[in-house]
Design brief:
The structure is a homodimer. By secondary structure, chain A is of the alpha/beta class. Helices cover 31% and strands 24% of the residues of chain A. Chains A and B meet through strand 5, helix 4 and helix 11 of A and strand 5, helix 4 and helix 11 of B. Chains A, B: One of its GO terms (biological process) is aerobic electron transport chain.
């Protein structure tokens, strides 16, 4: 009875880490949830903040708030920079350490520039709220500068937006920027015709939305082209600079580049000196523990694992949540002296929005596209948003956009025109 | 018929400048509205962004959007850094110039530290959206750091918030921070008791809300003290530093200081080498023109002018709007060859919120306080918000706060714990 409670430390409060903490409710454990942000982020809608459709507070919640009723959970706002597995301690950047009995690593991914980190300042990616407000500023400032630019060539470069990578994020960004230019902005400007905006989506592979079936990819491409997006396939970008991009040996002048082409796992594998794939993702056991570290679980995007058919489990929110749930159950089982079956991923479906009133959905046997898919996409996303208020607020924002073609969050913050390069 | 249209340049899209542009509708003029921000800001609610009650997009709108239907108005996102009155040109920072026939200066105010500009990094003020998100971050990070601080003295300093200046902004900030600590945050933290937060409001003068009648000041002070704010009167602050403040010869350890004590007019008087008062405000003629510059009007906070009784016109939104409206009418009259009567300020009333369900209102003959005043305050502010969507969104945010004691916008952005000093 006087035994010390079992200490679980969870690093990262994304979909996987948060789900694990939530599902450990009632277990005889003491939980510490560490994140370097104070908020949980609903990443699937981050592109809507970047394109001025939603406000930051509509897709993010203080982690403490989400766990306010859980006295067994301590939330820590801190940077982790290592794990001392021999002594079972998590090392924090400020010198503190946290002892654990079981550790759950849910540290996610960051952008990867495939050995070209020097491209990052020119082609920022989209992973955090700050990334989203930075992109929003760059996109809006580009139109502002175009409005004042008299040189036609420079003006054209300001009105050219290049998105590198045609996965769901790239497709969603391209579609939304095209609509911003076509539907929202035209009445606001006097010197430029924002219909002339070029949105160029460049993909190294042979089709957009490579994770979807061929026919949905083709449909997505057609839909993007209908709203004016130029889709360029089979062309890896070979240079990003302040002037634009180079692909296929030719330069394209563009002042706004967005990187949606690749990610790299966080440093969890480095911390543990554990086996990982080329993208830095930990190769875990079937029970999601790290090899030789039975007390360390790893989940979500920072992990490389295959489903029952041998296909890689995708880096999407439902997969991370399933893993968080599995680990919570595994910890409970262990403490009860039971064993657990290996993790099995169950794929519910893939969704991607393409512009304002279209989406594609792949449920495996059922494939949907067009307006009906868009409604399901919207309802599913509103449903999964945490917190009644945000659901309502996002629903109102979307209705507003669709009824009036207006976007409420078109704010350039973090400085005046001075700041924008 | 082939005459060039009369060119009006308005510098500043705050309440005065925007109102002037809106009221010039239909006049035979060509308007250019220049602002260094892309958004018009509803400053009276800025403290609610700083205290995590509202999102930035709920109180700000793209200037272009507000004037999208006005083909006679060109909106320019640019920094003005001078006026060449002899040649009738506005000088932009990037080297461009704008010719005018009539110029309207509505450039507002910034913080003033009374000769102690070195205090600014320690005691930031609240004038822009960036100021508000910076303050929000500092306030939220202070609680986060207190949660992890084991030294009682340092923890107490982290949980001490000092607001310098007890005008409406200071009073509203103090009341809202006290409520954040008492009503919103307690269930979120494990190591600290946020009820023990000290909110100290320091005022150099003899009472809070000096612009209000004595009895409302006394009521506001009592109400603040009821929610736990320590009100200190007749004490000018003599030092601000990373450790806290000094007043009355004694230091008070505090990690979060907020400056609400004074403002200084923008550089418009410098640009024109025109007469101004000690706070840098232009001394204008009864028709709001600048002496010796009949083609230059100046309005709003950047101007010093008296009402019919000889009292200074207050630096509030309704006063700026009345001046904007007056100048629009004056420009129209001049173009029609008519003269205009001098500007007359009509004071509708003064309002200030004190914490969640209380306010004071001074309508001159009628004085209101308490819950009824708070309802009028809320309805008036929602009414004056531009744009149906924001009204709805703010109303929902407020209902949510009052029903659940939750604040949606509690996001620490612009960096992780690293960034916070």
């Amino acid at each position: 009875m006087s035994q010390e409670p079992h200490r679980v430390v969870i690093v990262g409060a994304g979909f996987g880490g948060l789900e694990c903490a939530l599902r450990l409710k009632g277990a005889p454990v003491e939980i510490t949830l560490v994140d370097r942000r104070n908020h949980h982020l609903f990443q699937p809608l981050l592109y809507q903040v970047a394109t001025a459709s939603l406000a930051t507070s509509e897709i993010a919640w203080p982690i403490r708030y989400l766990l306010r009723d859980r006295s067994d959970v301590t939330t820590l706002f801190a940077n982790v920079n290592g794990v001392d597995a021999a002594n079972k301690r998590v090392l924090l950047e400020d010198g503190d350490t946290l002892g654990y009995d079981t550790l759950v690593l849910a540290t996610g991914v960051r952008h990867a520039y495939f050995g070209h980190d020097e491209w990052e300042p020119f082609a920022p990616g989209l992973k955090t709220l700050e990334d989203a407000t930075t992109l929003r500023r760059r996109i809006l400032v580009a139109f502002e500068r175009a409005e004042r630019e008299s040189d036609p060539e420079r003006r054209a470069a300001l009105l050219t937006f290049v998105i590198i990578g045609a996965g769901p994020t790239g497709v969603e960004l391209a579609g939304t920027i095209a609509e911003l230019a076509r539907d929202t902005l035209p009445p606001d400007f006097r010197n430029i015709d924002t219909h002339k905006t070029r949105v160029v989506l460049i993909e190294a592979g042979p089709r957009v939305l490579a994770g979807f079936p061929d026919d949905l990819s083709a449909y997505a491409q057609r839909s993007l082209e209908e709203v004016g997006v130029e889709v360029i396939l089979n062309q890896p970008v070979t240079e990003c600079s302040a002037d634009g991009v180079v692909f296929g040996g030719k330069p394209l002048q563009a002042r706004t580049l967005i990187w949606a082409a690749g990610v790299r796992a966080s440093r969890a594998a480095e911390w543990l000196q554990a086996p990982h794939d080329r993208a830095g993702r930990l190769q875990v056991q079937p029970d999601l523990t790290v090899p030789d570290h039975p007390d360390i679980f790893a989940i979500g995007d920072t992990v490389s694992i295959a489903d029952a058919k041998g296909n890689p489990v995708p880096g999407i929110a439902p997969a991370a949540k399933q893993q968080g749930r599995y680990v919570a159950a595994a910890i409970k089982a262990r403490l009860a002296g039971q064993t657990t079956a290996p993790f099995r991923y169950s794929h519910a479906g893939s969704l991607a929005q393409i512009g304002k009133r279209k989406a594609v959905i792949d449920f495996g046997t059922i494939k949907l596209r067009g307006t009906i898919a868009w409604w399901i996409w919207g309802i599913a996303h509103i449903y999964f948003l945490i917190g009644l208020r945000n659901r309502l607020s996002v629903a109102i924002s979307w209705l507003w956009i669709h009824a009036r073609d207006q976007r409420a969050a078109r704010l350039i913050t973090q400085g005046s025109s001075k700041v924008a390069r």
